[in-house]
Specification:
D-Maltodextrin-Binding Protein, domain 2; 12 helices; globular; 46% helix; 277 residues; alpha/beta; five-stranded mixed beta sheet; single chain; two-stranded parallel ribbon
Length: 277
Amino acid sequence: MDVQLFPSGQLGDEIQSVQQVWRARIEGAFVSASSLTTLIPELGMIKAPFLWASPKELDHVMDNYLFDALVPLFEAKGMILVEVMDVGWIHILSEPPVVMPGDAKGMKPRAVQTKTSVGFWEALGANPVALPFTDVLPSLQTGWVNGTDNDLVSIFSAEFHKAAQNLTLTFHSYQLGAVVISKSWFDGLTPEQQAMIRKSPDGERAQSRAEVRGLQNWILGQLDEGGVAIHRLSPDQTTAWQAALVDFNTELADKLGGSSTEFGALIAQGKGAFAKQ
């Protein structure tokens, strides 16, 4: 099979890519879970603030509870879910610093164009501006926005840290990505080709997770050397953040719609099983 790649947003931003896969204008894409919530709102439950205690907890729930439940949701939207990929913890990058929840009040941060992302900032009293990923850096540089929450790989590789130099390690959400394929294109393949696409190589998911997570400390070192002020929360500060978002998390399933309530129950079931290990 001959694959032609179009990296770095050549075919549009992430949400545009999702729409093009859905409409079968492109055969597939690697996109964030955030962008996929525009078609599959249940994915927004995975991004709920302070939902995950550790990456291992998320791994367990995704591998044993969520992946198989997501497959039919994707197929109902004309897409094949091939694989879920690790991207990393999400933190807040801003100018000036946002260390306590009250520091976000009145600020103008960038948000992803989703109910989970916009709602997160609004719950903190901020005035978020929904922007595609490609617009984040110029918007920070011009002062159109004065903050964003992203994973460390994105912050470093897209050089957001050169426009805002306060990084608060909130660990408030976890970013995943997904490889998705147009179902109409997939249905035209031979059974052998379909099987090849659906089956990732043995150990691929674990290896990709290890690679991404292994980058985190190195990136923090690079940011520190680059003059970024890195703020680490105390347990009491983390508790204050969690308390500020309790109501938002309680109402999230209703805001997302679809089968988000049932999906949230499945997450809770998986978290309970992990806690018993």
